[in-house]
Amino acid sequence: MATSGPDAGAAYPPAVDVAEQQRLVQVIKDWSIANGLAVRPPPAAISATEAALASTLAMAAPVTLFPSPFARSCFEEAQAAQQAYNELYAKISQDEAFLGRIVAEVAGGDEFTTKLWAVHERVKKEGYTHKHSLGIFRSDYLVHQETAGDTATGKAEAHLQIKQVEFNTIAASFGGLSGQASRLHKFLAKTEYPLLKSNTPSDKYSLPDNTSSRDIAAGLQAAFEVYERSEPKTSGTPPRCVIFLTQDGERNVFDQRHIEYAVEAPVFRVPFSAILQQTSVDTSVPRRPLLYHHAATQTFEVAVVYMRAGYGPSDYPDESAWEARYQVERSAAIKCPTVLTQVAGTKKVQQVLATPSASADGAPSELSRFVTDADRQATLRRTFANIYPLDTDSAAGRQARAWAQDVAACRTFVLKPQREGGGNNYYKYKIPAHLQTVPAEHWASYILMELITPPPVANLILRNGQVEQGGVICELGIYGTCIWGSESGSASQRILRNETAGYLLRTKGDQSEEGGVAAGFGCMDSVNLV
Protein backbone atom coordinates (compact mmCIF):
# COMPACT_ATOMS: atom_id res chain seq x y z
CA MET A 1 0.00 0.00 0.00
CA ALA A 2 1.42 3.37 -0.99
CA THR A 3 1.62 5.99 1.72
CA SER A 4 1.93 9.14 -0.34
CA GLY A 5 0.00 10.83 -3.11
CA PRO A 6 1.08 10.85 -6.76
CA ASP A 7 3.38 13.82 -6.44
CA ALA A 8 6.44 13.86 -8.68
CA GLY A 9 8.29 15.95 -6.12
CA ALA A 10 7.67 19.29 -7.85
CA ALA A 11 4.82 21.31 -9.31
CA TYR A 12 2.94 19.14 -11.76
CA PRO A 13 2.17 19.45 -14.53
CA PRO A 14 5.11 21.67 -15.49
CA ALA A 15 4.19 25.30 -16.02
CA VAL A 16 3.95 26.35 -19.67
CA ASP A 17 3.53 29.82 -21.12
CA VAL A 18 1.29 30.61 -24.08
CA ALA A 19 3.97 30.03 -26.71
CA GLU A 20 5.08 26.75 -25.14
CA GLN A 21 1.51 25.51 -24.94
CA GLN A 22 0.86 26.39 -28.57
CA ARG A 23 3.97 24.50 -29.66
CA LEU A 24 3.05 21.45 -27.56
CA VAL A 25 -0.46 21.44 -29.00
CA GLN A 26 0.81 21.57 -32.58
CA VAL A 27 3.37 18.82 -31.99
CA ILE A 28 0.74 16.61 -30.35
CA LYS A 29 -1.75 17.17 -33.19
CA ASP A 30 0.79 16.31 -35.89
CA TRP A 31 2.28 13.35 -34.02
CA SER A 32 -1.19 11.97 -33.31
CA ILE A 33 -2.30 12.07 -36.94
CA ALA A 34 1.04 10.72 -38.17
CA ASN A 35 0.92 7.80 -35.71
CA GLY A 36 -2.77 6.95 -35.63
CA LEU A 37 -3.66 8.39 -32.22
CA ALA A 38 -6.83 9.51 -33.94
CA VAL A 39 -10.58 9.17 -34.32
CA ARG A 40 -13.03 10.01 -37.07
CA PRO A 41 -14.57 13.47 -36.63
CA PRO A 42 -18.18 13.54 -35.45
CA PRO A 43 -20.78 14.09 -38.19
CA ALA A 44 -21.60 17.53 -36.78
CA ALA A 45 -18.01 18.62 -37.42
CA ILE A 46 -18.08 17.64 -41.11
CA SER A 47 -19.28 20.31 -43.52
CA ALA A 48 -21.54 19.56 -46.46
CA THR A 49 -18.61 19.95 -48.85
CA GLU A 50 -16.56 17.43 -46.83
CA ALA A 51 -19.31 14.82 -46.53
CA ALA A 52 -18.05 12.85 -49.53
CA LEU A 53 -14.63 12.65 -47.86
CA ALA A 54 -15.92 11.55 -44.44
CA SER A 55 -14.29 8.10 -44.69
CA THR A 56 -10.88 9.71 -45.25
CA LEU A 57 -11.00 12.28 -42.44
CA ALA A 58 -9.30 11.96 -39.06
CA MET A 59 -8.70 14.13 -36.02
CA ALA A 60 -6.38 13.79 -33.05
CA ALA A 61 -7.93 11.80 -30.21
CA PRO A 62 -8.42 13.71 -26.94
CA VAL A 63 -5.20 13.38 -24.95
CA THR A 64 -3.34 14.94 -22.02
CA LEU A 65 -0.37 17.22 -22.68
CA PHE A 66 1.64 15.39 -20.02
CA PRO A 67 1.54 11.85 -18.62
CA SER A 68 -0.35 11.83 -15.34
CA PRO A 69 1.40 10.93 -12.06
CA PHE A 70 0.28 7.50 -10.87
CA ALA A 71 1.34 5.62 -7.76
CA ARG A 72 3.81 2.92 -8.81
CA SER A 73 2.67 0.47 -6.12
CA CYS A 74 -0.96 0.74 -7.26
CA PHE A 75 -0.02 0.28 -10.92
CA GLU A 76 2.03 -2.81 -10.11
CA GLU A 77 -0.71 -4.25 -7.90
CA ALA A 78 -3.28 -3.88 -10.69
CA GLN A 79 -0.96 -5.57 -13.17
CA ALA A 80 -0.21 -8.39 -10.74
CA ALA A 81 -3.93 -9.13 -10.34
CA GLN A 82 -4.79 -9.43 -14.03
CA GLN A 83 -3.98 -13.09 -14.61
CA ALA A 84 -5.99 -14.02 -11.52
CA TYR A 85 -8.90 -12.00 -12.90
CA ASN A 86 -8.56 -13.67 -16.31
CA GLU A 87 -8.76 -17.09 -14.68
CA LEU A 88 -11.66 -16.04 -12.45
CA TYR A 89 -13.84 -14.84 -15.31
CA ALA A 90 -12.93 -17.78 -17.54
CA LYS A 91 -14.21 -20.07 -14.78
CA ILE A 92 -17.33 -17.99 -14.18
CA SER A 93 -18.09 -18.20 -17.90
CA GLN A 94 -18.13 -22.00 -17.63
CA ASP A 95 -20.55 -22.09 -14.68
CA GLU A 96 -23.98 -22.00 -16.28
CA ALA A 97 -25.82 -22.65 -13.01
CA PHE A 98 -24.17 -19.68 -11.28
CA LEU A 99 -24.84 -17.35 -14.21
CA GLY A 100 -28.42 -18.59 -14.44
CA ARG A 101 -29.01 -17.47 -10.85
CA ILE A 102 -27.49 -14.07 -11.64
CA VAL A 103 -29.79 -13.61 -14.63
CA ALA A 104 -32.82 -14.65 -12.57
CA GLU A 105 -31.99 -12.00 -9.95
CA VAL A 106 -31.81 -9.12 -12.47
CA ALA A 107 -34.42 -10.38 -14.95
CA GLY A 108 -37.27 -8.19 -13.73
CA GLY A 109 -35.48 -4.94 -14.46
CA ASP A 110 -32.99 -5.92 -17.14
CA GLU A 111 -34.58 -7.07 -20.37
CA PHE A 112 -31.26 -6.94 -22.24
CA THR A 113 -29.48 -9.50 -20.06
CA THR A 114 -32.60 -11.66 -20.11
CA LYS A 115 -32.60 -11.68 -23.92
CA LEU A 116 -28.89 -12.52 -24.00
CA TRP A 117 -29.63 -15.50 -21.78
CA ALA A 118 -32.41 -16.57 -24.14
CA VAL A 119 -29.84 -16.77 -26.95
CA HIS A 120 -27.72 -19.06 -24.78
CA GLU A 121 -30.67 -21.31 -23.95
CA ARG A 122 -31.66 -21.54 -27.59
CA VAL A 123 -28.16 -22.64 -28.63
CA LYS A 124 -27.88 -25.01 -25.67
CA LYS A 125 -31.06 -26.75 -26.78
CA GLU A 126 -29.59 -27.66 -30.16
CA GLY A 127 -26.10 -28.17 -28.75
CA TYR A 128 -23.02 -25.96 -28.69
CA THR A 129 -20.33 -26.88 -31.22
CA HIS A 130 -17.48 -24.48 -30.42
CA LYS A 131 -14.64 -26.01 -28.42
CA HIS A 132 -12.81 -22.91 -27.18
CA SER A 133 -13.50 -19.37 -25.99
CA LEU A 134 -11.41 -16.21 -26.12
CA GLY A 135 -11.54 -13.44 -23.55
CA ILE A 136 -10.07 -10.02 -24.25
CA PHE A 137 -10.68 -8.48 -20.86
CA ARG A 138 -10.04 -5.13 -19.21
CA SER A 139 -10.17 -4.54 -15.47
CA ASP A 140 -10.73 -0.87 -14.63
CA TYR A 141 -9.49 0.77 -11.43
CA LEU A 142 -9.27 4.03 -9.54
CA VAL A 143 -6.73 4.83 -6.86
CA HIS A 144 -8.54 5.23 -3.54
CA GLN A 145 -7.03 7.62 -1.01
CA GLU A 146 -7.76 7.03 2.65
CA THR A 147 -6.59 9.71 5.03
CA ALA A 148 -5.84 8.71 8.61
CA GLY A 149 -4.21 10.57 11.46
CA ASP A 150 -0.77 9.50 12.63
CA THR A 151 -1.02 9.17 16.41
CA ALA A 152 2.72 9.78 16.84
CA THR A 153 2.93 13.00 14.82
CA GLY A 154 -0.67 14.17 14.84
CA LYS A 155 -0.45 14.65 11.06
CA ALA A 156 -2.79 13.19 8.46
CA GLU A 157 -1.26 10.51 6.27
CA ALA A 158 -2.70 9.40 2.94
CA HIS A 159 -2.83 5.68 2.15
CA LEU A 160 -3.37 4.74 -1.48
CA GLN A 161 -5.09 1.56 -2.63
CA ILE A 162 -6.12 0.32 -6.06
CA LYS A 163 -9.86 -0.42 -6.25
CA GLN A 164 -11.74 -2.03 -9.11
CA VAL A 165 -14.45 0.02 -10.82
CA GLU A 166 -15.63 -2.69 -13.22
CA PHE A 167 -14.50 -5.70 -15.24
CA ASN A 168 -15.14 -5.63 -18.99
CA THR A 169 -15.69 -8.89 -20.86
CA ILE A 170 -16.91 -7.49 -24.20
CA ALA A 171 -15.63 -4.77 -26.54
CA ALA A 172 -12.91 -3.61 -24.13
CA SER A 173 -11.83 -0.64 -26.22
CA PHE A 174 -8.74 1.56 -26.61
CA GLY A 175 -6.19 -1.25 -26.61
CA GLY A 176 -5.01 0.17 -29.93
CA LEU A 177 -4.83 3.85 -28.98
CA SER A 178 -3.52 3.38 -25.43
CA GLY A 179 -0.12 2.21 -26.65
CA GLN A 180 0.04 5.21 -28.98
CA ALA A 181 -0.68 7.58 -26.09
CA SER A 182 2.23 6.04 -24.20
CA ARG A 183 4.48 6.44 -27.24
CA LEU A 184 3.40 10.07 -27.61
CA HIS A 185 4.34 10.95 -24.04
CA LYS A 186 7.66 9.10 -24.34
CA PHE A 187 8.38 11.13 -27.48
CA LEU A 188 7.48 14.42 -25.79
CA ALA A 189 9.60 13.53 -22.73
CA LYS A 190 12.64 13.15 -24.97
CA THR A 191 12.09 16.04 -27.37
CA GLU A 192 9.74 18.70 -26.00
CA TYR A 193 9.54 18.69 -22.21
CA PRO A 194 13.29 19.41 -21.77
CA LEU A 195 12.81 22.59 -23.85
CA LEU A 196 10.29 24.11 -21.45
CA LYS A 197 11.40 27.01 -19.28
CA SER A 198 10.44 24.91 -16.27
CA ASN A 199 13.12 22.48 -17.57
CA THR A 200 11.84 18.97 -16.92
CA PRO A 201 14.51 16.59 -18.24
CA SER A 202 13.42 13.23 -19.61
CA ASP A 203 14.94 11.31 -16.69
CA LYS A 204 12.35 12.92 -14.39
CA TYR A 205 9.68 10.78 -16.02
CA SER A 206 9.10 7.08 -15.37
CA LEU A 207 7.08 5.93 -18.38
CA PRO A 208 6.60 2.15 -18.66
CA ASP A 209 6.32 0.47 -22.04
CA ASN A 210 2.78 -0.26 -23.20
CA THR A 211 2.37 -2.94 -25.86
CA SER A 212 -1.40 -3.30 -25.56
CA SER A 213 -2.23 -3.43 -29.28
CA ARG A 214 0.48 -6.01 -29.96
CA ASP A 215 -0.52 -8.10 -26.94
CA ILE A 216 -4.24 -8.06 -27.74
CA ALA A 217 -3.47 -8.99 -31.34
CA ALA A 218 -1.32 -11.85 -30.03
CA GLY A 219 -4.36 -13.16 -28.15
CA LEU A 220 -6.44 -13.07 -31.34
CA GLN A 221 -3.62 -14.73 -33.26
CA ALA A 222 -3.33 -17.47 -30.63
CA ALA A 223 -7.08 -18.12 -30.82
CA PHE A 224 -6.87 -18.35 -34.61
CA GLU A 225 -4.09 -20.93 -34.28
CA VAL A 226 -6.07 -22.92 -31.68
CA TYR A 227 -8.99 -23.10 -34.13
CA GLU A 228 -6.65 -24.19 -36.92
CA ARG A 229 -5.33 -27.05 -34.78
CA SER A 230 -8.66 -28.16 -33.34
CA GLU A 231 -10.90 -27.97 -36.42
CA PRO A 232 -9.71 -30.40 -39.13
CA LYS A 233 -9.52 -29.28 -42.74
CA THR A 234 -10.67 -31.24 -45.75
CA SER A 235 -10.01 -30.66 -49.43
CA GLY A 236 -13.10 -28.46 -49.62
CA THR A 237 -12.44 -26.34 -46.52
CA PRO A 238 -12.24 -22.63 -47.44
CA PRO A 239 -9.43 -20.41 -46.14
CA ARG A 240 -9.94 -19.18 -42.59
CA CYS A 241 -10.18 -15.69 -41.19
CA VAL A 242 -10.91 -13.46 -38.20
CA ILE A 243 -13.86 -11.06 -38.29
CA PHE A 244 -14.31 -7.90 -36.24
CA LEU A 245 -17.98 -7.15 -35.57
CA THR A 246 -18.27 -3.36 -35.54
CA GLN A 247 -20.88 -0.66 -35.06
CA ASP A 248 -22.26 1.38 -37.93
CA GLY A 249 -20.62 4.79 -38.16
CA GLU A 250 -17.76 3.74 -35.88
CA ARG A 251 -15.59 6.77 -35.08
CA ASN A 252 -13.06 4.80 -33.06
CA VAL A 253 -11.90 2.88 -36.11
CA PHE A 254 -8.15 3.52 -35.72
CA ASP A 255 -8.13 1.97 -32.26
CA GLN A 256 -9.44 -1.21 -33.88
CA ARG A 257 -7.16 -0.95 -36.91
CA HIS A 258 -3.98 -0.95 -34.78
CA ILE A 259 -5.01 -4.37 -33.44
CA GLU A 260 -6.26 -5.64 -36.79
CA TYR A 261 -3.00 -4.82 -38.58
CA ALA A 262 -0.98 -6.72 -35.97
CA VAL A 263 -2.89 -10.00 -36.48
CA GLU A 264 -1.09 -12.36 -38.86
CA ALA A 265 -4.24 -13.79 -40.40
CA PRO A 266 -6.89 -12.46 -42.79
CA VAL A 267 -9.09 -9.99 -40.87
CA PHE A 268 -12.37 -8.55 -42.12
CA ARG A 269 -14.67 -5.94 -40.60
CA VAL A 270 -18.36 -6.84 -40.56
CA PRO A 271 -20.97 -4.37 -39.29
CA PHE A 272 -23.09 -5.96 -36.56
CA SER A 273 -26.12 -4.90 -38.57
CA ALA A 274 -24.86 -6.91 -41.60
CA ILE A 275 -24.15 -10.27 -39.93
CA LEU A 276 -27.09 -12.02 -41.58
CA GLN A 277 -26.21 -10.60 -45.00
CA GLN A 278 -22.47 -11.28 -44.94
CA THR A 279 -22.24 -14.54 -42.98
CA SER A 280 -24.00 -17.89 -42.82
CA VAL A 281 -23.76 -21.13 -40.87
CA ASP A 282 -23.05 -24.31 -42.83
CA THR A 283 -25.59 -26.66 -41.24
CA SER A 284 -24.59 -29.51 -43.57
CA VAL A 285 -21.56 -30.00 -41.34
CA PRO A 286 -22.23 -31.15 -37.73
CA ARG A 287 -19.81 -28.64 -36.21
CA ARG A 288 -21.66 -25.76 -37.96
CA PRO A 289 -18.78 -23.62 -39.28
CA LEU A 290 -19.45 -19.89 -39.69
CA LEU A 291 -18.83 -18.72 -43.25
CA TYR A 292 -17.96 -15.15 -44.26
CA HIS A 293 -18.91 -14.25 -47.82
CA HIS A 294 -16.21 -11.77 -48.75
CA ALA A 295 -17.26 -11.63 -52.39
CA ALA A 296 -19.60 -13.46 -54.72
CA THR A 297 -16.87 -15.94 -55.58
CA GLN A 298 -14.81 -15.91 -52.36
CA THR A 299 -15.82 -17.42 -49.01
CA PHE A 300 -13.85 -17.76 -45.77
CA GLU A 301 -14.46 -19.96 -42.75
CA VAL A 302 -14.48 -17.78 -39.64
CA ALA A 303 -12.06 -19.01 -36.98
CA VAL A 304 -12.49 -16.12 -34.51
CA VAL A 305 -15.25 -13.54 -34.00
CA TYR A 306 -14.03 -10.44 -32.13
CA MET A 307 -16.99 -8.36 -30.99
CA ARG A 308 -16.52 -4.60 -30.86
CA ALA A 309 -20.31 -4.26 -30.98
CA GLY A 310 -23.25 -6.08 -29.47
CA TYR A 311 -22.60 -4.94 -25.90
CA GLY A 312 -25.69 -2.80 -25.39
CA PRO A 313 -29.38 -2.58 -26.31
CA SER A 314 -28.80 -0.02 -29.08
CA ASP A 315 -27.01 -2.71 -31.12
CA TYR A 316 -30.22 -4.79 -31.11
CA PRO A 317 -32.92 -2.49 -32.55
CA ASP A 318 -35.08 -5.38 -33.77
CA GLU A 319 -35.41 -9.15 -33.69
CA SER A 320 -33.16 -9.58 -36.72
CA ALA A 321 -30.25 -8.32 -34.61
CA TRP A 322 -30.98 -10.99 -32.00
CA GLU A 323 -31.18 -13.56 -34.78
CA ALA A 324 -27.75 -12.39 -35.94
CA ARG A 325 -26.30 -12.87 -32.46
CA TYR A 326 -27.85 -16.34 -32.35
CA GLN A 327 -26.25 -17.18 -35.70
CA VAL A 328 -22.80 -16.29 -34.43
CA GLU A 329 -23.33 -18.05 -31.09
CA ARG A 330 -24.44 -21.37 -32.59
CA SER A 331 -21.42 -21.59 -34.90
CA ALA A 332 -18.11 -23.38 -34.38
CA ALA A 333 -16.15 -20.11 -34.45
CA ILE A 334 -14.24 -19.06 -31.33
CA LYS A 335 -16.21 -16.15 -29.92
CA CYS A 336 -14.78 -13.15 -28.11
CA PRO A 337 -16.98 -13.21 -26.14
CA THR A 338 -19.61 -15.93 -25.97
CA VAL A 339 -22.97 -14.98 -24.51
CA LEU A 340 -21.99 -16.64 -21.23
CA THR A 341 -18.78 -14.61 -21.04
CA GLN A 342 -20.70 -11.42 -21.76
CA VAL A 343 -23.17 -12.21 -18.97
CA ALA A 344 -20.22 -12.91 -16.66
CA GLY A 345 -19.24 -9.26 -17.11
CA THR A 346 -22.45 -7.85 -15.67
CA LYS A 347 -22.24 -5.63 -12.61
CA LYS A 348 -24.30 -8.13 -10.63
CA VAL A 349 -21.52 -10.72 -10.93
CA GLN A 350 -19.01 -8.13 -9.70
CA GLN A 351 -21.26 -7.37 -6.73
CA VAL A 352 -21.81 -11.01 -5.81
CA LEU A 353 -18.05 -11.63 -5.84
CA ALA A 354 -17.27 -8.56 -3.74
CA THR A 355 -20.09 -8.50 -1.19
CA PRO A 356 -18.83 -10.13 2.03
CA SER A 357 -20.65 -13.20 3.25
CA ALA A 358 -21.98 -13.66 6.74
CA SER A 359 -19.08 -15.94 7.60
CA ALA A 360 -16.82 -15.08 10.50
CA ASP A 361 -13.83 -14.22 8.31
CA GLY A 362 -15.90 -11.94 6.07
CA ALA A 363 -14.71 -13.66 2.89
CA PRO A 364 -16.52 -12.71 -0.32
CA SER A 365 -19.39 -15.14 -0.62
CA GLU A 366 -18.67 -16.61 -4.04
CA LEU A 367 -14.99 -15.96 -4.73
CA SER A 368 -13.71 -19.20 -3.24
CA ARG A 369 -16.10 -21.10 -5.50
CA PHE A 370 -13.95 -20.12 -8.47
CA VAL A 371 -10.51 -19.36 -7.00
CA THR A 372 -9.16 -21.94 -4.56
CA ASP A 373 -5.61 -20.64 -4.22
CA ALA A 374 -5.40 -18.52 -1.03
CA ASP A 375 -2.79 -16.13 -2.42
CA ARG A 376 -4.84 -15.45 -5.55
CA GLN A 377 -7.94 -14.91 -3.45
CA ALA A 378 -6.06 -12.35 -1.36
CA THR A 379 -4.75 -10.61 -4.49
CA LEU A 380 -8.28 -10.19 -5.81
CA ARG A 381 -9.86 -9.22 -2.48
CA ARG A 382 -7.44 -6.32 -2.05
CA THR A 383 -8.80 -4.74 -5.23
CA PHE A 384 -12.50 -5.11 -4.39
CA ALA A 385 -14.49 -1.96 -3.71
CA ASN A 386 -17.49 -2.07 -1.37
CA ILE A 387 -20.48 -3.10 -3.51
CA TYR A 388 -23.98 -3.94 -2.34
CA PRO A 389 -27.08 -5.57 -3.84
CA LEU A 390 -30.47 -3.89 -3.86
CA ASP A 391 -32.53 -6.98 -3.12
CA THR A 392 -34.93 -7.46 -0.24
CA ASP A 393 -33.77 -10.95 0.74
CA SER A 394 -30.38 -10.10 2.22
CA ALA A 395 -29.44 -7.80 5.08
CA ALA A 396 -26.89 -6.12 2.80
CA GLY A 397 -29.59 -5.47 0.20
CA ARG A 398 -32.04 -3.99 2.68
CA GLN A 399 -29.34 -1.73 4.11
CA ALA A 400 -28.32 -0.63 0.60
CA ARG A 401 -31.93 0.24 -0.23
CA ALA A 402 -32.06 2.47 2.82
CA TRP A 403 -28.82 4.24 1.85
CA ALA A 404 -29.96 4.69 -1.76
CA GLN A 405 -33.14 6.48 -0.67
CA ASP A 406 -31.49 8.65 1.97
CA VAL A 407 -30.58 12.06 0.51
CA ALA A 408 -27.62 12.35 2.87
CA ALA A 409 -26.30 8.78 2.84
CA CYS A 410 -26.55 8.43 -0.95
CA ARG A 411 -23.85 11.07 -1.49
CA THR A 412 -21.10 8.50 -1.00
CA PHE A 413 -22.45 6.04 -3.59
CA VAL A 414 -22.91 5.42 -7.30
CA LEU A 415 -25.86 3.39 -8.64
CA LYS A 416 -25.03 1.11 -11.57
CA PRO A 417 -27.23 -0.89 -13.95
CA GLN A 418 -25.90 -3.89 -15.88
CA ARG A 419 -25.12 -1.75 -18.96
CA GLU A 420 -21.74 -1.42 -20.68
CA GLY A 421 -20.49 1.89 -22.07
CA GLY A 422 -20.33 5.35 -20.53
CA GLY A 423 -23.22 7.47 -19.30
CA ASN A 424 -25.36 4.81 -17.64
CA ASN A 425 -24.61 5.44 -13.95
CA TYR A 426 -26.34 7.61 -11.34
CA TYR A 427 -24.26 9.46 -8.77
CA LYS A 428 -24.93 10.79 -5.29
CA TYR A 429 -28.11 12.87 -5.00
CA LYS A 430 -29.38 11.62 -8.38
CA ILE A 431 -29.80 8.10 -6.97
CA PRO A 432 -33.06 8.58 -4.99
CA ALA A 433 -34.64 10.55 -7.84
CA HIS A 434 -33.83 7.84 -10.36
CA LEU A 435 -35.05 5.01 -8.17
CA GLN A 436 -38.39 6.78 -7.83
CA THR A 437 -38.84 6.22 -11.58
CA VAL A 438 -38.11 2.48 -11.30
CA PRO A 439 -40.59 -0.06 -9.87
CA ALA A 440 -39.24 -1.25 -6.52
CA GLU A 441 -39.37 -4.87 -7.66
CA HIS A 442 -36.83 -3.99 -10.38
CA TRP A 443 -34.26 -2.40 -8.06
CA ALA A 444 -32.45 -5.73 -7.72
CA SER A 445 -31.17 -5.27 -11.28
CA TYR A 446 -28.91 -2.45 -9.97
CA ILE A 447 -25.88 -2.48 -7.70
CA LEU A 448 -24.81 0.20 -5.22
CA MET A 449 -21.07 0.92 -5.05
CA GLU A 450 -19.27 3.12 -2.55
CA LEU A 451 -17.57 5.98 -4.34
CA ILE A 452 -13.80 5.68 -4.66
CA THR A 453 -11.93 8.81 -3.59
CA PRO A 454 -8.92 9.41 -5.85
CA PRO A 455 -6.00 11.63 -4.82
CA PRO A 456 -5.77 15.13 -6.30
CA VAL A 457 -3.98 15.26 -9.66
CA ALA A 458 -3.72 18.10 -12.19
CA ASN A 459 -3.08 18.06 -15.92
CA LEU A 460 -3.90 19.72 -19.24
CA ILE A 461 -6.28 18.04 -21.70
CA LEU A 462 -6.30 18.69 -25.45
CA ARG A 463 -9.76 18.04 -26.87
CA ASN A 464 -11.05 19.22 -30.26
CA GLY A 465 -8.21 21.72 -30.53
CA GLN A 466 -8.93 23.33 -27.15
CA VAL A 467 -6.84 23.01 -23.98
CA GLU A 468 -8.53 22.48 -20.62
CA GLN A 469 -6.48 22.76 -17.42
CA GLY A 470 -7.33 21.74 -13.88
CA GLY A 471 -7.92 18.84 -11.55
CA VAL A 472 -8.30 15.43 -13.15
CA ILE A 473 -9.21 11.86 -12.22
CA CYS A 474 -7.28 8.99 -13.79
CA GLU A 475 -8.84 5.57 -14.40
CA LEU A 476 -6.45 2.70 -15.04
CA GLY A 477 -7.44 -0.27 -17.17
CA ILE A 478 -5.36 -3.45 -17.34
CA TYR A 479 -5.91 -5.67 -20.37
CA GLY A 480 -5.74 -9.44 -20.35
CA THR A 481 -6.16 -12.22 -22.89
CA CYS A 482 -7.33 -15.71 -22.01
CA ILE A 483 -8.19 -18.80 -24.05
CA TRP A 484 -9.97 -21.76 -22.48
CA GLY A 485 -11.77 -24.84 -23.71
CA SER A 486 -11.76 -28.59 -24.12
CA GLU A 487 -9.19 -30.61 -25.96
CA SER A 488 -10.12 -33.33 -28.44
CA GLY A 489 -12.02 -36.16 -26.77
CA SER A 490 -12.22 -34.42 -23.39
CA ALA A 491 -15.31 -32.94 -21.75
CA SER A 492 -13.33 -30.96 -19.17
CA GLN A 493 -12.15 -27.43 -19.92
CA ARG A 494 -8.77 -25.95 -19.16
CA ILE A 495 -7.04 -22.63 -19.64
CA LEU A 496 -4.71 -22.68 -22.64
CA ARG A 497 -3.47 -19.08 -22.50
CA ASN A 498 -3.50 -16.47 -19.74
CA GLU A 499 -1.62 -13.21 -20.30
CA THR A 500 -1.56 -9.59 -19.15
CA ALA A 501 -1.81 -7.38 -22.23
CA GLY A 502 -0.82 -3.79 -21.52
CA TYR A 503 -2.76 -0.94 -19.96
CA LEU A 504 -5.04 2.02 -20.61
CA LEU A 505 -5.14 5.30 -18.72
CA ARG A 506 -8.25 7.44 -19.23
CA THR A 507 -8.36 10.86 -17.65
CA LYS A 508 -11.28 13.22 -17.13
CA GLY A 509 -11.91 16.51 -15.40
CA ASP A 510 -12.50 16.01 -11.70
CA GLN A 511 -16.02 17.43 -12.04
CA SER A 512 -17.04 14.74 -14.57
CA GLU A 513 -18.76 11.63 -13.25
CA GLU A 514 -18.11 9.41 -16.30
CA GLY A 515 -14.81 8.49 -17.94
CA GLY A 516 -15.59 6.92 -21.32
CA VAL A 517 -13.50 8.44 -24.11
CA ALA A 518 -15.80 7.17 -26.87
CA ALA A 519 -18.81 8.43 -24.90
CA GLY A 520 -17.26 11.92 -24.86
CA PHE A 521 -16.26 12.15 -21.20
CA GLY A 522 -12.56 11.27 -20.93
CA CYS A 523 -9.30 11.45 -22.84
CA MET A 524 -6.28 9.26 -23.53
CA ASP A 525 -3.36 9.43 -21.11
CA SER A 526 -0.40 7.40 -19.89
CA VAL A 527 1.18 6.85 -16.48
CA ASN A 528 4.15 8.65 -15.01
CA LEU A 529 5.01 6.29 -12.15
CA VAL A 530 5.85 7.96 -8.85
Automatic annotation (TrEMBL):
ATP binds at residues 347, 416-425, 427, 449-452, 475, 508, 514. Residues 241-344 form the Glutathione synthase substrate-binding domain. Binds 1 Mg(2+) ion per subunit. InterPro entries: Glutathione_synthase, Glutathione_synthase_a-hlx, Glutathione_synthase_C_euk, Glutathione_synthase_N_euk, GSH-S_sub-bd_sf, GSH_synth_subst-bd, PreATP-grasp_dom_sf. Its cofactor is Mg(2+). GO terms for molecular function: ATP binding; glutathione binding; glutathione synthase activity; magnesium ion binding. It holds the Pfam family GSH_synthase. It catalyses: gamma-L-glutamyl-L-cysteine + glycine + ATP = glutathione + ADP + phosphate + H(+). Keywords: ATP-binding, Glutathione biosynthesis, Ligase, Magnesium, Metal-binding, Nucleotide-binding. Its EC number is 6.3.2.3. It comes from the Eukaryota. Mg(2+) binds at residue 420. Substrate binds at residues 256, 506. Pathway: Sulfur metabolism; glutathione biosynthesis; glutathione from L-cysteine and L-glutamate: step 2/2. One of its GO terms (cellular component) is cytosol. Gene3D superfamilies: 3.30.1490.50, 3.30.1490.80, ATP-grasp fold, B domain (3.30.470.20), Glutathione synthase, substrate-binding domain superfamily, eukaryotic (3.40.50.1760), Glutathione Synthetase, Chain A, domain 3 (1.10.1080.10). NCBIfam families: glut_syn_euk (TIGR01986). Belongs to the eukaryotic GSH synthase family. This is Glutathione synthetase. It comes from Sporothrix brasiliensis 5110.
